[in-house]
């Protein structure tokens, strides 16, 4: 397979067909990937230290929408921290009040005590000036913490910090319990708040959706990154055998960390563009699955193909060989560009106008006014986002860009369907194609899935494409029972709901 870092060609059509073949997924590949997913699920549930970490969260139930109460959430994940007050109304609705607070570079890199004191001060300031409910009571206010850094969670309210990321390097934090660090800060300052739960944003998405629709078996993030958390039979989590949690049986939410699926790339459909992206990334040979489907990387994959077409010889196949600083810059093209291109092509009109591009030459006089208008809209997006001039972008260029962006996005959505299918099969709600029918769990009920993330929210038709691969892998009946809904604010509302669950489990 020729490298897509450059093309030497005698026929443009052959180049287009080569790219097209690289990014298509056959049914056989989808089945193989799903089976491999299930194998990695099993390995991660049985032992620690696998790429698919399958982290026990110690959350042993999900809300059903009838719960009431007021809970706090603290979300630390980057430049800002966010304090939220969530009031659960008991009818699947809630109200949310929130405030963001800036985390300075000095706090990120100073002593851990200074950072956690600031977190506590921010919660105190929120309670004093922002909270809607009466906080001037002697009652302890429960808080859920969303901590978006690597943690080895050992209980619902305990987790050891493994390393800092995202520019943080606070001293004397690694190896310590993040909940204890925060609670010590609350206690030092005599703030009447107790951190009762540590939550991952994917788990939060599951809990948030569960509250909104009365239950949920899978929470998934398809945004800048990707991950999934689902409700698993405790008996299958063999690596916690002998623990108090295992002795209670029942069910537990597992954080899969599926972004690390198949880090060896033995089954993932890597193209030369994917290999180049991985090699030049900050974490080569890690988070392989995430690099195929998450918003952080799709724009860069598209950029790799765009530059290869610009640099092709003996004749450029895009923009007459012209480029811009945006196109030339590593990660210069954001995934939002892919969404904008598709939105421009679809517009608000009917989709009846179609065109077989770029495999045939575009004759400006041979196509309907509708097609020309839509390609003109795509050209406008290219000019705006890539920094080219309008006379540097032909309608054929616009058609090629729309096509290749669609290839990248469709592959991402189809692979996302593989992850969802694996969870349905793992939990006994579906069987893979070609296998004997077996009695399914909750066969007559809807399968509720909560999702969050900019990709599934903003890319037109992402869910519909995801369902194409899901339908093939688990059959029309199972796919038809899947209800996918946006989970509102998993890192805020979900953390508050995790605090609620922590109180339930202790009662």
TrEMBL record:
Pathway: Carbohydrate degradation; glycolysis; D-glyceraldehyde 3-phosphate and glycerone phosphate from D-glucose: step 1/4. Keywords: ATP-binding, Glycolysis, Kinase, Nucleotide-binding, Transferase. One of its GO terms (cellular component) is cytosol. It is an enzyme of class 2 (transferase). The keyword ATP-binding applies. The keyword Cell membrane does not apply. Its EC number is 2.7.1.-. One of its GO terms (molecular function) is D-glucose binding. Residues 218-500 form the Hexokinase C-terminal domain. InterPro entries: ATPase_NBD (IPR043129), Hexokinase (IPR001312), Hexokinase_C (IPR022673), Hexokinase_N (IPR022672). PANTHER family: GLUCOKINASE-1-RELATED, HEXOKINASE. Belongs to the hexokinase family. This is Phosphotransferase.
